[in-house]
Design goal:
Elements (H helix, E strand, L loop, with lengths): L8 E6 L4 H14 L4 E6 L3 E6 L3 E7 L1 H13 L3 H20 L6 H5 L3 H19 L7 E2 L5 E3 L2 E8 L2 E8 H7 L4 E5 L8 H4 L6 E2 L8 E4 L7 H18 L27
Parallel strand pairs: 1-4
Antiparallel strand pairs: 2-3, 3-4, 5-7, 6-7, 7-8, 8-9, 9-11, 10-11
């Protein structure tokens, strides 16, 4: 913003469903930077605020400028160009419909089909982020993605331990507000007793061959990237708790590989 000429405007364009959330975060960024804001203006299409009596900051949805462009082209009789803008508008509306909005308690109690699909997609994104060199938390596994009725899983490893990261609709129904779970191929002893003492307990021992399965709480009112970071932090905490425990799967010399009869694979 400080690179703008006086009365310049820093304008953000975002999906309509995320506009108000992002606007609140942008205003907080200004506050954190000691920039005074005033004369805030909110309309159905946009939000604007005067910043330090020097600049403007605003946010609009993608559909707002595109709709104005379409109307202007229609007025000028540019029907072939207007159809191109209509395609962009359709794409933006589709993005809005599929956007991962911050979770609310209702999403965990009475989720939409889209939310359930997003939770399954979250398994993939956690796997991808955890495998990044900058994370160093997870390593690849030779086991394939697992899926059965109400159950979607990714198999990964971390150091000496094999892990299964999964969405389980039955556990979600039985144990409350947790759709996402982590099974650890380890003999934990008392390493997870603090999690067992939670109400309700966040650890069960009904995983493969009696292995511990830990619920991964999803933070509310957070961006998807923040949800991914938070859950990876929970996984790192669980691994720290069991780091001295004996694994129940003997890792092979190939990184991430496990014996075929390790018991982790889902039944056909």
């Amino acid at each position: 913003m400080k690179r703008l000429a006086r009365d310049g405007c820093l304008l953000f364009v975002a999906p309509a469903k995320r506009r108000d959330l992002l606007w609140g975060k942008l205003l907080q960024r200004c506050d954190d930077a000691g920039l005074r804001r005033r004369d805030e203006l909110r309309t159905q299409k946009a939000c604007f605020s005067r910043i330090d009596d020097s600049w403007w900051m605003g946010i609009v949805s993608w559909t707002a400028p595109l709709s104005d462009m379409r109307d202007a082209l229609e007025a000028e009789g540019e029907g072939h160009l207007r159809s191109d803008v209509d395609q962009l508008l359709s794409l933006c509306r589709l993005e809005d419909e599929e956007a991962f909005l911050p979770l609310t308690p209702l999403d965990l109690v009475r989720p939409t089909p889209l939310r359930v699909l997003q939770f399954m997609t979250l398994v993939e994104k956690l796997n991808q982020k955890g495998l990044e060199p900058s994370s160093g938390l997870l390593q690849r596994s030779s086991l394939q993605t697992g899926a059965r009725l109400g159950h979607y899983a990714r198999y990964v490893s971390s150091g000496r331990f094999m892990l299964k990261l999964f969405v389980d609709l039955r556990r979600w129904s039985d144990h409350g507000l947790i759709p996402l779970w982590l099974e650890v191929a380890v003999e934990p002893g008392d390493a997870l007793k603090e999690l067992e003492a939670e109400t309700p307990p966040r650890v069960t021992y009904d995983g493969t061959m009696g292995r511990p399965v830990v619920g991964l709480a999803l933070p509310l009112h957070a961006e998807e990237s923040e949800v991914v970071s938070d859950v990876l932090g929970q996984i790192a905490d669980i691994l720290e708790r069991v780091k001295s425990c004996p694994p129940t799967v003997q890792m092979s010399s190939a990184e991430g590989d496990v014996p075929i009869d390790d018991g982790l694979s889902d039944p056909a």
